[in-house]
Amino acid sequence: MRIPLIAGNWKMNKTVQEARQFIEDIQGQLPAADQVETAIAAPALFLQTMLDANHDDVLKIGAETCYYEDEGAFTGETSPRALHQMGIPYTIVGHSERRRYFNETDDVINRKVQAVFRNGMTPIVCCDETMGRRESGEKIHWVVNQVSAALKGVSAEDAAKIVVAYEPSWAIGSGTTASSDQAEEGCYLIRQTLADIYSDDLANGVRVLYGGSVKPDNIAGLMKNDNVDGVLAGGSSLDEKSFVQLAHYQSL
Ligand SMILES: O=C(CO)COP(=O)(O)O
């Protein structure tokens, strides 16, 4: 049984005060974590404040990225060891914005995945796909390659805990979400890739999310797919009311 995961990615939005207010406001409004798990990935600078405000401890607080070394002379970077020590369970790795604006390569992403596991956290690994690649039919090997590269050298024991998100970049922040069929197709492809690398059993236990313009009015259609186990929402996770609605997608 894969417990659905409704995750938000705040990107570079909000201030520490706004982050605290959001967490205070949603206390008591989320589903039980054994029914629907909820998480918000936020800038490292907010995390301690968010943890402190998260009294009912239902929401998981995650990071948006971290470095692949545990510590050292890497000015400005975030240590995965420090994140783990704070009590952070999830870190997004390989978001398309990191790939595009910060030149993160498959190799860097693979090292980050390993660092996140080494430090006892779970990576939410993002796979991207451009419209050009979709239209040229290149989509399949692009997604397969990203998943394979991210997991190079990762043991089955660790890979069984991973979360993967299919986030077509043409759907991110565009207001155009993938159709329910396109989301299912991308998530299915990721699961098949995991089955090819590891095993059917492992692939069947891993949660695969869809991300790209997910909103309260389209989440139910996306979530009814067999291979879509949750969402990674950007814009609609910034508003308390819409994040709580996403978490209660079953009653929308
Ligand atoms: O990038 C995303 C989540 O990681 C999706 O962002 P939007 O929901 O704003 O399209």
From TrEMBL:
Q: List the source organism.
A: Levilactobacillus tangyuanensis
Keyword annotations:
Cytoplasm, Gluconeogenesis, Glycolysis, Isomerase
Pfam family, any one = TIM
Kindly give the Gene3D superfamilies that the UniProt entry links to this protein.
Aldolase class I
Tell me, in a sentence or two, what this protein's role is.
Involved in the gluconeogenesis. Catalyzes stereospecifically the conversion of dihydroxyacetone phosphate (DHAP) to D-glyceraldehyde-3-phosphate (G3P).
> Does this entry carry the keyword Phosphoprotein?
no
* Name of the molecule in the record: Triosephosphate isomerase
Q: Where in the cell is it found?
A: Cytoplasm
Residues reported in the UniProt entry to bind substrate: N9, W10, K11, G173, S213, G234, G235
CDD domains from the UniProt entry: TIM
Question: Where does the record place the catalytic residues?
Answer: H95 (electrophile), E167 (proton acceptor)
Q: Where is the signal peptide?
A: none
The protein's predominant localisation is: cytoplasm
Subunit composition and interactions: Homodimer.
Pathway stated in the Swiss-Prot or TrEMBL entry:
Carbohydrate degradation; glycolysis; D-glyceraldehyde 3-phosphate from glycerone phosphate: step 1/1; Carbohydrate biosynthesis; gluconeogenesis
| E.C. no | 5.3.1.1
